[in-house]
Amino acid sequence: MFGDEIAVPKELREFMIDGAEETVLGQKNGAKKQYRYGKLHIREYEDKFLVHTDKIDPREDPLGHLFYDAPEVIAGIACAVFGGTQITKSLFKKNKSQKFNPSASISSSIIMGFLGYVVTKKIKNYLE
Q1: pLDDT tens-digit profile of 30-51?
Q2: 6, 39, 70, 111: least CB-packed within 10 angstroms?
Q3: Is the dihedral of CA 101, 102, 105, 107 positive or negative?
Q4: Can you give the residue range of the structural domain that contains 41?
C-alpha cells in the first residue's frame, strides 16, 4: 500500500468513480467487490468504501505490483517453494526407509509459504 487507506462511509456518500472497473486483482480483505481506476484500489464493503493508491497498477505491470505493493505474496511463494523443498529433503534424508510422501511435501510447503507471507506482511506494515 502507498500511504494509508481512506474510509468513505456509505451513509455519507455512495460513490464510484466513472471509469473504475471491477477487478479480481488484489486482496479483497472481506470486501464485497473491488475496483481499480489506474493506481487507485477501491474496496466496497457493506457500510463503506476503503480506498488507497498503489505504487504500480497491476493491470499494467503485474510483477512490478507484486514486488512494490505486495511483496508478502512473493515472499510466501518463495518460502513455499524453497522452504518446503528443503524441509522435505531433510525429512527424507533422516528417514531413508520412508517412501516419498506427497502430503508431507505439500504440507511443509503450505506452512512455509504461510509463515513467509505473514512475517513479510508484518514487516511491511511495521515499516509503513
Answers
A1: 999 999 999 999 999 999 999 9
A2: 6
A3: negative
A4: 2-61
